[in-house]
Amino acid sequence: MESLLYFFSGFRWQDILDILLNSYILFRLYILFRGTNVIRVLFAFCVLWAVSQIAAPLGLIITNWARQGVITIAALIIIIVFRNEISSVLQTKDLKSFLWGIPRFQSHTPLSIIIESVHELADKKIGALIVLPLKQGLDSVVQKGISIKGKLSQEMLVSVFWPDNPLHDGAAIIQGDWITSAGVILPLSKRTDLPSLFGTRHRAASGLTELTDAMVIVISEESGKISLFKKNKTYNIKSRSAMETLLKKHAGDDSVKKRFRRQTIELATAGLISLLCVTGVWLSFSKGIETLATHEVPVEFINPNQKMKIISSSASSVKLLISGARPLINSIKPKQINIKLNLAQAVIGVNKLSITKENILLPPGIQLKDINPSVLDITLDTLIEKQLPIQPNWSGKLPKGLVMKEAEAFPKTIRVTGGGMDLKNISTIFTEPILLDKLTESGTATIGLLLNPTSLRLKESTKIQIRYTISKKSTHKNKS
After folding, report:
1. Mean pLDDT, to the nearest integer, of 316-324?
2. Does domain 111-257 have CATH number 3.40.1700.10?
């Protein structure tokens, strides 16, 4: 239970957003690539990652080393091997299908209309290309096309491929009992093992089925033969019954409710697995590798008595040893760590104040390991005002033959604010040093005051004028 609490300690809203965003991205990758080899490879890498989480604690050195090598080049492997599938997805023309659209299964598809239409076109040797999508969307694979959204009927389907129709050279896409678009351009297959008698329509049908789970019906314009493409298989149709069997197998014999429920369960499972995978990765990065760091943080004193002043402190800053995930440690800014000591209960004199976790504010996800020093000596005193006479602070000696006759400060006194203990034994305040060895005649010096201790404060900023009179020493000759 304590381990679980540690894992989720300091859980930030940024972490929730991070997990949900990446879970959705992973879920969208499944939607876009489901039914293709890309999903199988991604699943294999997920298994490798899970194995690595077990191999490291068990000390399986070779297994862990091999896993790291494979995962390191995983992105390169996927890009090289599946560049065609990835390119097709990235070339999508429909932002909706790329970001949030979910393709639905074939429902209420009148197979008898398709079968009769196909044989009518075959008898008349009219070339045709009919696409029946399944789970995967086609927007990221096909190009152009005209959206017609016409109700599926034998007359409608035959008219699409009639030679005088401008759309007859492209493919028609059927969703349910609707012809959604016509004149669609399909990607051509790059296979080299296709029969030489296959024309452009056959290669287009093979190219689409290599990238998606759709079924494509092709009618040859030269021979009137019917071919059906599914995945990497080609079926030559010679009878209505054979075609009906294949179409039913593709569309499924289950009821619409059952198939809808099955797809809903599939998508919900994919979403849950995506969430669990991303959460596992987040836990691995945020909690798996602990990083230590030391930060020197200034101490902030709060709720001081307005009649008292901090005279001295044993330390102005404290060193904190903290731990957490490396990305969190590296992203910490100085303003995110604060130490605040409450002076509400402090008294005049020396106060020993302990620094605890309650006094320290850390970013979420960061743990406190050590505090140095953990106790501060804070000296407080009552603020008072005192009128003090000003005394010039002469330094050095006057040049030979000169003597200081008189010196007077203007103003003669000044009001000083400070702690009662400090001002108690102070009867005079001195100016900053005035060098006598550079004075040769009477004059005026403008000088500042020397505040000792430094906690003393002047009521107002004042420059002191020292007026001094210098004369030559009188000499008397001895009479013999």
Report:
1. 89
2. yes
